[in-house]
Amino acid sequence: MKRFITNNISILGPFIGLIVFSIILGIFSDSFFTFDNLLNLLRQISVNALIAFGMTFVILTAGIDLSVGSILALGSALTAGLLTSGMDPILAIIIGLLIGFVLGAINGLVITKGKVAPFIATLATMTIYRGATLVYTDGRPITGLSDSFSFQMIGKGYVFGIPFPVILMLIAFAILYFILRKTVFGRQVYAIGGNEEAAILSGIKADRVKIWVYSITGMLSVLAGIILTSRLNSAQPTAGSSFELDAIAAVVIGGTSLMGGKGKIVGTLIGALIIGVIDNGLNLLNVSSFYQQIVKGGIILLAVLLDRRSK
Amino acid sequence: MMVTPLVEMVGVSKSFSGNQVLHNVQFEVKKGEIHALMGENGAGKSTLVKVLTGIHERDSGQIKVNGGEVHFTNPKQAEARGIVVIHQELNIIPHLTVSQNMFLGKELTYGRSGILNHRKMKALTEESLQKLGVTNISPDDIAGDLSVGKQQMIEIARALATNAELIIMDEPTAALTEREIASLFEVVTDLKRKGVAFVYISHRMEEIFQICDRITILRDGEYIGTENISDTSFEQVVKMMVGRELGERFPARKSKIGNIVFEVDNLSSKDGTFHNVSFTVKEGEILGVAGLMGAGRTEVMETIFGYRKKDSGSVKLNGKELKMRHPNDLINAGVGFITEDRKSKGLVLGSSIRENIALVNLKTVSQKGVISNKKERDLVENLIERLHVRTTGKEQEVKSLSGGNQQKVVIAKWLGINPKVLILDEPTRGVDIGAKKEIYSIINELTEHGVAIIMVSSELPEILGVSDRIMVLHEGSVTAFIDREDADQEIIMLAATGGN
Q: I need a surface site. Which of A48, A144, A246, B459 has the fewest CB within 10 A?
């Protein structure tokens, strides 16, 4: 038990925070702790959580990815384009995910082979990918997408009463948790963030690992985008704007260090839940969305300040 | 008549969260003496200095400066009473000029205008450097472009500018070349004649016997004794430090030297730091690599290991040419590399001992990319035990280990790959004397199993005590190969400075 606590000390704070926020909202709002609302909440966070899972890998390598929102938009738009051209939805989705992978790989290549700081590299690609989306869509939403069951299922479906996006999120979580905890690749991600030079001198191909990390993040962003597209039944050229901030916030609230090398994906899930609980709860309480932003920012600050304290 | 000592510490104790670090320690420095403070890592030397200069508050005991009791609560107050510390990691801001560094935090201005009086600061910088007899530094030089030795001179000049009576130097020669050490010692002995006192903290016994007047020894936070250097011996000091006879400083070798396993042929670097380096190492042999700072020793090793780009040349293991695109190529072939700077290149400091040791052995402890907890635990625990790493457990962060134990973790991780060739770059830097001997024993044991060793070191006694053969580099070229029987310090120094 004691060992369990010391091993998980970094996510203890966020976890307690999540419980406290939930209880407070439960007291003020009768509808918060209803089964439907909680499922709804999980569905609401699934898009941000998927992106934040990828962002966790990126931040663990001491990087950052600002382009996730733009990749989401470009990947969704291209997938939507394929769908309207009558392509088989499953195939279109797979191609869409591959596009996300490639867009992420471009980030990784610029960062590793071009030796550009991740912040600058992804700031640039964020703008480029967004521009490409606007060019492709001509600035208009793409509508009239597939009526096929499989495409509609992704954003709107339920399995055993659980929203399909939530299932996707949990599957992604399980896989990524396993990768970080149990695989050589996961260990390499931590080592690169902890001390890249020592990692390289220990035989780790840091460039390759980083390119993979950005690629996975790109793919997860497009997955999140396809969920959104399916829900709205249209691809919006402005989709995903400022999503990078929510994703980074979830990672940071979850206790992952922006310096790299330290953090847990469980923390990110909790971080995304905290953001979701606040959004959801404040909506239930009819708090204006303007105030919501102030509260959210305050909580990010609080999380980081508490984290500093404990060190 | 008794002369009042400059600094007198009596019965000083200090503990951190229940852990007693100093226990009833006494320490005295007289005006104009050079006083060595020695002890193994963790003996309490740095804590004693921190208590003296007010970084830590003492729990009990008395500290007097020039006869008056003091209670410093920060280093500024100590500085005002003439006590200055020059840390191992120099307090120099690399992008600023020499004179900007000199006056950092106490810049001179025109009256109270807040406008900097550059001319006056430069003149005063020039003047204080001249007082030290240093003429090859200009106040306008960018500090980061200067050698470590020159940067240290800036720190000394800065200390003197505050009228320091006592300068405490922590491992001042660790990063200096032989020539820089000589000029540092000149400056120090000159200042001593002018009445400045020094506390000299170092692991380098030769230097202490060369320059110091008295020596105080701490062990496990306790005061062991103070001796006049002229009345004591090398062996006695070591015994006081470790509390037992350590025996031979360099354990006896009994490996059999076999065939050539490792060949470096005409290796040249891309950036021109070295050219046409060729050498061979045999099974069970230790090749010592000597040379001055900047001779290119580390660069040669990092290039061999695939960490830097080569221009031409090749590396062969057992007659087979190795690819050198990435350290991974060399590791797979069975070459290990213990880097010079363990903190920046050898360890992931924030990670556990387990994770650090596993890092080069991920392939061994995993199957199809999935790590086996059991295999990892077995490997790590086995290596921790084999190297006698003193730790609370394999989950301890390496950051919190002493220098010697950190180095053992670095060695442990490389032993995991069962290397055929092991390159060690300054394997005992910043390591205390007990751990040093353990490291030599490990190296010996490896040679007995036929491992070929390449050992770079700046400490000539170590090179002479450990190597079978010595290669000397000078400005990026090999200037000599010397067999152990024929080698002495002078022959090596001659080759290292470019003579024949």
A: A144
Q: In this predicted model, what pLDDT tens digit does every residue of A104-154 receive, in sequence order? A: 999 999 999 999 999 999 999 999 999 999 999 999 999 988 788 888 889
The minimal CB distance from A195 to the residues B337, B348, B360 is found for: B348
- ipTM of this predicted structure: 0.88
> What CATH code would you report for B260-496?
3.40.50.300
- Which of A53-57, A207-211, B176-180, B344-348 shows the lowest mean pLDDT across its residues? B176-180
What is the DSSP track for B75-115? HHHHHHTTEEEE-SS----TTSBHHHHHTTTS--BSTTS--
- Answer left, alpha or beta for residue B14, where phi above 0 means left and psi between -120 and 50 means alpha: beta
Helical packing angle, A35-60 and A265-284, nearest 10°: 140
Please indicate whether, in this complex, the C-beta atoms of B347 and A198 are within 8 angstroms of each other.
yes
Non-local (6+) Cβ contacts of B246 within 8 A are: B238, B239, B433, B434, B437
Q: Which residue has the tokens 């903190």?
A: B343
CATH 3.40.50.300 domain extents, chain B = 7-242, 260-496
Residue B160 DSSP SS3: helix
- Closest to B52 in 3D by CA, of B75, B82, B19, B86: B75
pLDDT band at A201 (very low <50, low <70, confident <90, very high): very high
Contact assessment for residue B475 and residue B498, using Cβ atoms and an 8 Å cutoff: yes
Query: Region B396-420: what's the mean pLDDT?
Result: 91
Nearest CA in chain A to B356: A191
Distance (Å, whole) CA B359 – CA B369: 13
The CATH code of the domain at B7-242 is 3.40.50.300
Of B257, B264, B254, nearest in space to B423 by CA? B264
Question: Among B346, B350, B371, whose Cβ lies nearest the Cβ of A187?
Answer: B371
Give chain A positions within 8 Å (CB) of B366.
Answer: 183-184
Q: How far apart are CA A225 and CA A215, in angstroms?
A: 15
Nearest residue of chain B to residue A195 (CA atoms): B348
Q: How many CB pairs under 8 A join A and B?
A: 75
Residue of B nearest to A185 (CA): B369
| A84-92 long-range contacts, CB within 8 A, separation 24+ | A84/A142, A84/A144, A84/A145, A89/A146, A89/A148, A89/A150, A89/A151, A90/A150, A92/A146, A92/A151
Q: Do B370 and A184 touch (CB under 8 A)?
A: yes
Among chain A residues, CA nearest to B416: A202
CB contact under 8 A, B344 and A198: yes
Residues of chain A contacting B332 with CB distance shorter than 8 Å: 203
Whether pLDDT at B243 is above 80: no
* Averaged pLDDT for residues A55-82: 97
